[in-house]
Amino acid sequence: MNLASRINSIKPSATLAITSKANALKAEGRDIIGFGAGEPDFDTPDHIKKAAIKAINDGFTKYTPVGGIEELKDAIIAKLKRDNNLTYKRSETVVSCGAKHTLYNLAQVLFQEGDEVIVPSPYWVSYTDIIILSGAKPVIVKTSVSAGFKMTPNQLENAITTRTKAVILNSPSNPTGATYTREELAALAEVIVRKGILVITDDVYEKIIYDGFPFSTIASVSEEVKGLAVVVNGVSKAYAMTGWRIGYAAGPEQIISAVAKLQSQNTSNPTSIAQKAAVEALNGPQDSVSDMAREFEKRRDIIVAALNAIPGVSCFKPQGAFYVFPDFSGVFGRSCKGKPISTSTDLATYLLDEANVAVVPGIEFGHDAFIRLSYASSMKLIQTGVERIREAVKNLS
Ligand code: PMP
Ligand code: GLU
Fold first, then answer.
1. Looking at residues 332-342, what average pLDDT do you find?
2. Which of 189, 200, 229, 342 has the smallest count of CB within 10 Å of its CB?
3. In this predicted structure, what is the pLDDT of residue 37?
4. On the CB side of 311, how many CA atoms lie within 13 Å of its CA?
5. pTM (predicted TM-score)
């Protein structure tokens, strides 16, 4: 069977693949500790679940407007005003089936063959494949630990060509947790406005932020950059609602209405009852959001310290999200049963086979010296899992 070349040009999501492999091994009885899954281990708060149950009982179970119900658009508009000081109209917001779907839709309506899209690395695994599916070319701008895993205005400017359509920013970042300050965003915005490119800002980890770091989105830096920006956000991470599949975009009306047109020919509306739950998430009490963030912060402190205590390992301290991205190159070159560990994939395979620990190889995020661990799991599992990694590293010869 010949599949379309489009599907052969991408690979499956590594984060999802590793999570499902770890789950399959667990189902076979293996005692696997999973650091793969990038989703909160908390339950969706009760008041949000109740809103969905009420929607079912009220018979709110039919098609809705393709781009989302007005009540949810209004909740998104209020959220963007309250949290980000951004003003949008209903016609400038669209709701999709998760932020991944939002990003996919944006790529489909904005990018095509011949376009270049700038992606700072380490990047979330899906950006590059979403861009490739649109026919455009991802242009990777490599950042380093010494620069706090952040792209400088100079790097951005040097990557821009006549073909550049957009840049994708993600702060706090998956996988590094690096978070841009407002000043850093203003400096990037200056280049974006001067060069007249678009910016897609993926703010899904906005609420998971530490040490009192004030979150800023680039769209709020100036009116000029707002006109070139599409804000992407969702309820998955902030409200532990990964399975509900609600994400959204806010930006120029022309882009937003194109997304709604595309959606009218593929998914139609996002699930009606999940939309009602998202209204409650955004409009209801926000205590659980900061409670979860404080718990993640404690776990971050534990995992960063434990990883840095392993000889040969160096771990950047994230300011947000729930991932660590430690550098393991100090253990590369050593071997297990004569098999050398020289890449992040070798290391991830070794850790899964010999230590029963699932991690994502850094190469999937564009950096082969690193691995990604999600600390969205209990303190006990984090401690036991990192202890297993320490032992496994010690056993390398
Ligand atoms: N952006 C980033 C950086 C992510 O880590 C995720 C998590 N899957 C998403 C977008 C998509 O989230 P969702 O589709 O669950 O809203
Ligand atoms: N964003 C999460 C991760 O990076 C969830 C899985 C996915 O959609 O990639 O692990």
1. 93
2. 342
3. 82
4. 7
5. 0.97
